[in-house]
Amino acid sequence: MDQTDGPDQDFPVGDATITAKDQSADDFQEARAHDGSQPRPQETTPSSELALNREHNAALPIHTLPAEVFLQVIRLYMLDLFDPEDHAKGYNKCLINLSGVCSYWYNLIRDSPPLWTRLDLSDPPEVVEIVLQRSSSHLLDVILDPPNFEDEPETAALTNFRSI
Predict the structure, then answer these.
(1) Backbone φ and ψ of 83, nearest 5°
(2) Rounded mean pLDDT of 34-43?
(3) What secondary structure letter does DSSP report for 36?
(4) pTM of the full structure
(5) Confidence class of residue 77 from pLDDT cuts 50, 70 and 90?
(6) Strand pairing report for 16-21 and 8-13
(7) Is residue 21 within 8 Å of 7, Cβ to Cβ?
(8) Cβ distance 108 to 71 under 8 Å?
(9) pLDDT band at 126 (very low <50, low <70, confident <90, very high)
(10) pLDDT for residue 48 is more than 60
(11) pLDDT on residue 160
C-alpha cells in the first residue's frame, strides 16, 4: 500500500479498492447544515435549570427516606462530630451548612427544633439568634466557655449573652 499526500487515498480491501476523499472541516459542516443533522444547542433558562435540579435531587436515594429517619441520620452525624461533653465549637455553624445543601434539607433541618437545642454563647450573635428562633420552646444546652483571662476580659462571653 502506497501512501500519498494528495487529498484522495486508495486503500486495497480484498479484490476491491476504496478511495477515501479528504473533505475539509468547512465542507463537512456545510454538508451537515444542509441535511438538518446539525445539533442545536438547547436553550435553558435559570428557572428550567432550577426545575431540573429539583427533579434530580428528588430522585436521589437519600430523599426517599422518611423525614424522621433522615433527621435521625443528621442527629447521629452531628453527635459523631460534636460530642456533647466535649463542647466542640462549630455545631450550629455545621447545621447551617448542612441546611444549605438543598431546599429539602433546609426545610427539614430548619423545622426540627431538637437539632437546635445547643446554644454556644461564643457563636456570633446572628448564629445565636438563629438557634433561639429554630429551637422553638425546647430546652437549651447553653455552652458558656470560661474566658481565658490572658486573651480576653472576663465579661466578653457575657456580652453575647446580654445581646440576646
Answers:
(1) -65, 130
(2) 55
(3) T
(4) 0.57
(5) very high
(6) antiparallel
(7) yes
(8) yes
(9) very high
(10) yes
(11) 55
**Cα gap 17→101, rounded to integer Å:** 61
Q: What secondary structure letter does DSSP report for 78?
A: H
Q: What is the pLDDT of residue 22?
A: 47
Region label for 43, one of left (φ > 0), alpha (ψ between -120 and 50) or beta (otherwise):
beta
- Grid look-up 452531628 returns 78
Give mean pLDDT, residues 105-133.
92
* Cell output for 120: 454556644
141 within 8 A of 118, measured Cβ to Cβ: yes
As to burial, measured by CB atoms within 10 angstroms (0-12 exposed, 13-18 middle, 19+ buried), residue 120 is buried
Per-residue cell: 3: 501512501
- Euclidean distance between CA atoms 18 and 10, whole angstroms: 6
